[in-house]
Amino acid sequence: MIKVSTQEFQIYCKYVYDICGINLASNQSYLIETRLAPLLKKFSCNSFTELYNQARGDRLKKIEQEIIDAITTNETYFFRDKSPFDLLQFKIIPDLIDKRSGRSGLPPSLRIWSAACSFGQEVYSLAITLRELLGNDLGKFRISIIGTDISDEAISRSSYGLYNQFEIERGLPPEKLRLYFNPVDNGWRIKDELRSLVSFRKLNLLQPFTALGKFDIILCRNVAIYFPLPDKVKLYEKIASSLVPDGYLMIGAQESLTGITSLFEPKRYLRSIFYQLKN
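-> C-alpha cells emitted (279 positions)
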C-alpha cells in the first residue's frame, strides 16, 4: 500500500475540510491511505500528491466527489440505537399529530428531515415507524420525509432503496423485513408504499439550507462529531432556523449541545433526550 507522507497528509486535511467539512485528526492518516487507495489505482496515480493534483485540475469535480464518497463515514443501520424510534413512536409523533389536527381543516402534515442520511436506513426506519403508528390512516396525513447527504453515492443508493443481506441483518427485525421489503436477485428492496413517503437530495451541511424549508422533526445524529466547534455552532444555528417553533431536534446518543449552543432546551422522555427551541 502506498503511504501518505506527512506533507501530503497536511494537504489532504485542509482539502477534505474544504470540500466536506470533516476535520481529520492528526492520527488519522490511515484514513487517507485506506479509503483513497482504490482511487490511486483507478486514476493511475503513483502518489497521493498525483491524486490531489488530478482532483484539483478536474473541472467537472468528478474526482473530488469520489474522494468525498470515500472519506465520508457511511456507518449506519436500521433503527440505530432503537430508543430514538421509540421516542418518535410513543411521544413525538403522537404529540405533533394532536397539535396539528384540526388546525386548518386540512389533513395534518408532518415534515421530517434526516441530515447526513448515508445509505437511507434511518429514513426508511422513519417511514416504517410512521406506517406502524398510523396504520391504515397513513393516507390521511401529509407526510414528507427528506434525507440529505453530501455523497452522490449515498443519495443514489438511498433513492433506489436496495440493501444486501448484511445491511438487512443490521437492526431490521425479520417481521419488518417481510412486511416492508421485496426480495430481489441481489438483496431486498423497500416497497413502493414507503418509498413514496421519502425523497433524497445532495446537501453539504456547512452550506446554507434554508431552501429546504421548515421541519417538525430534524434528526442530525452522529454527524456533527466530525466538525470542529465553530462549524458545530453554525450548524445548530441553521438547524434552529429550520425548525418550526414547537419542533423537535434529535442528535446522537453520545452527543450533547452543552457548550455549543444555547438555542435549544434539552428534555427527557423515558431513556431518550430530545431538544426543542427555547421560548
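The chain has two domains: 6-71, 83-277.
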